[in-house]
Design a protein that fits this description.
It is a single chain. The protein is an alpha/beta fold. It has helices spanning 53-56, 82-95, 108-119, 141-155, 159-173, 183-190, 195-214, 264-267, 269-277, 280-283, and strands at residues 12-18, 21-28, 35-39, 61-65, 101-106, 124-130, 227-232, 244-246, 249-257. Helix 3 links the parallel strand 5 (101-106) and strand 6. Helix 4 packs antiparallel against helix 7 (195-214). The protein is globular. It starts with 11 loop residues before the first strand and ends in a 10-residue tail after the last helix.
Length: 293
């Protein structure tokens, strides 16, 4: 990717070989502190955590990578299956010699967290997935229509590359209410994700991953990692998800934040910081925190 990453006080930047993928990583905090992995979603990069990193770095070793093809990481032509993204991140932990981590993921960063946790629960202390349906969410035709409304065009091989930049910029502002994202930040995100990567992310999901998911690929998998999902009550994709324990998943619970939609890391960063600061017994999936008033 062209240009240098934006500066954030206390953050240093490295490029790490993660099983052959050159990944950009923003790192902050004491290298001997407990590690926290911050994983962004589409169409963003490590920069989406800019309001979270300074507070977390006071207590944790913060590692905020750019996913394959996003931000300042390498953008190969293939490998955008979400299981592969999970593999990239586990390889990154190997390269950094990190055995166990607290995983905080937003959007696809939360989805890949679930996939990695099912595969390698021994690598996790606990997990927070933000503004993403968990793997055991019941199908909902209305939500599916909302999702396909933007994923469908983005997945098309001819139309997708033509509309990817415009749609990314529009989606970055969607659901923010009067708190519009600064144009500088819109540019940082949109200019550092190639249209081909956007197409690959969603074409891979719709063509290869959605049908197995709908047929129950993960239906009988039981999460072994203490995990919390935080959702925005106004998020069109996850709206209506009930708070509290998830049936059949004793390690997983859902919290719902009122007066916010999809962009919790930027609009409600304190919710993430507070979760990270909770004792593990209170922050894990067995907690039954009520919806926020």
């Amino acid at each position: 990717m062209a240009g240098e990453p934006p500066e954030l006080a206390g953050v240093r930047h490295e490029h790490v070989d993660a099983a052959g993928l050159r990944m950009h990583v923003a790192i902050a905090g004491d290298e001997h502190a407990p590690p926290v992995l911050l994983v962004h979603g589409w169409p963003q990069s490590w920069w989406e955590w800019r309001l979270v990193i300074p507070a977390l770095a006071e207590r944790f070793r913060v590692i905020a990578p750019d996913l394959r093809g996003h931000g300042w990481s390498e953008a190969p032509a293939r490998g955008y299956e979400k299981e592969q993204l999970a593999s990239d991140l586990l390889a990154l932990l190997d390269a950094l010699a990190i055995e166990r981590v607290t995983w905080i993921g937003h959007d696809w960063g939360g989805w890949t967290g679930f996939l990695a946790a099912l595969r390698a629960p021994e690598r996790f202390e606990r997990m927070l997935a933000v503004c993403i349906p968990h793997l055991w969410t019941r199908p909902d035709a209305r939500k599916a229509a909302v999702t396909l409304g933007y994923q469908g065009p983005l997945s098309l091989p001819v139309i997708g590359p033509r509309v990817a930049d415009r749609m990314a910029r529009a989606i970055l502002q969607a659901g923010r209410g009067p708190e519009r994202l600064a144009q500088q930040d819109v540019d940082i995100f949109a200019e550092h994700i190639p249209p081909a990567v956007t197409v690959a992310m969603y074409r891979t999901f719709l063509v290869r991953e959605l049908a197995p998911l709908a047929m129950g690929r993960y239906a009988h998998a039981v999460l072994q990692v203490p995990s919390t999902v935080i959702l925005g009550a106004a998020d069109a994709v996850t709206r209506g998800t009930p708070p509290g324990p998830v049936p059949g998943q004793p390690q997983l619970s859902v919290r719902v934040l009122e007066r916010v939609a999809h962009w919790v890391p930027e609009q409600r960063p304190q919710a993430i910081v507070e979760w990270a600061g909770e004792p593990s017994a209170a922050a894990d999936g067995r907690s039954q925190a009520p919806a926020e008033a």
